[in-house]
């Protein structure tokens, strides 16, 4: 159950990061509110997951979810482009997240 909470925390992290991009430097009200709400939700869910999960593993996975999720959404929503070294690094992050889950 705590792994699912951690996954939800990662999804909330991606949501606030994307909303922050849409907020245009907090000049647009609705995306700014979404950013604040999901920022807090992400922290609350991470704290709940940390009740049972090891800090280092959970935090690494939470940030990894954020990196991978925002990268993917950046490509689709904002037409961001990755070069080959960036793709390789993202693949290594995904491998690290998988390794942490399998070995934790």
Structure, explained:
The protein is mainly alpha-helical and 104 residues long. The chain is built from four helices and no strands. It has helices at 2-22, 29-49, 55-78, 84-103. Helix 1 runs parallel beside helix 3 (55-78). The protein starts with a helix and ends with a helix. The model has no long low-confidence stretch (mean pLDDT 95).
Keywords:
mainly alpha; 104 residues; 4 helices; 83% helix; single chain; 0% strand
**Count of individual beta strands:** 0
Low-confidence stretches: none
Seen as an oligomer or otherwise, the chain set is single chain
Q: State which percent range the strand residues make up.
A: under 5%
Q: Helix/strand-derived class?
A: mainly alpha
Please estimate the helix content: over 70%
Summarize model confidence as the mean pLDDT: 95
Topology, element by element:
Layout (H helix, E strand, L loop, with lengths): L1 H21 L6 H21 L5 H24 L5 H20 L1
Helix pairs in contact: 1-2, 1-3, 3-4
Quick synopsis:
This protein is mainly α and 104 residues long.
